[in-house]
Amino acid sequence: KIKSWITCEIPSRLTQPGLDVLACVTRAINQECPLKLIYNSLSSGETEREIVPFALIDNGLRWHARAFDRRSGDFRDFVITRMKQPVV
Q1: What is the pTM of this model?
Q2: β-bridge mates for residue 67, sequence order
Q3: Do residues 11 and 61 lie in contact, with contact meaning Cβ atoms separated by under 8 Å?
Q4: Which of 33, 37, 43, 84 shows the greatest Cβ crowding within 10 Å of its Cβ?
Q5: How does pLDDT run across 29-63, given as a tens digit for each residue?
Q6: β-strand 45-58 against 35-41: which pairing, if any?
Q7: What is the largest CA-CA distance in the chain?
């Protein structure tokens, strides 16, 4: 029996995105269209947003959509699991 010389712990994924939300974000990126959704932010709570996503990021723990936020007029990262009711 072979044993590892170094003990290694890999954190499991904290959250898995819903496929329906992930599909809408992917569709919006592919079609270069805005995405209207309800977003639950830690700082401002639940708000309606219109974002223009252009990239998906998986940092190993959670999925993000990099997008232009029309509400703030700035580029931001949005956690996919905090999105509800996305519409392309």
Answers
A1: 0.80
A2: 53, 76
A3: yes
A4: 37
A5: 999 999 999 999 988 899 999 999 999 998 878 89
A6: antiparallel
A7: 59
Q: Measure the N-to-C terminal CA separation of the chain; round to a whole number of Å.
A: 54
Q: Number of helices (H) and strands (E) in the chain: give both, helices first.
A: 1, 5
Return all residues near 41 (Cβ < 8 A) that are at least 6 apart.
Answer: 47, 82
Nearest to 58 by CA among 74, 31, 39, 79: 79
From CA 46, how far away is CA 79, in angstroms rounded?
13
**Cα 83 to Cα 18: distance, rounded to the nearest angstrom:** 9
Q: Are 88 and 31 in contact (CB under 8 A)?
A: yes
User: Taken in order 10, 67, 27, 30, is the CA torsion positive or negative?
Assistant: negative
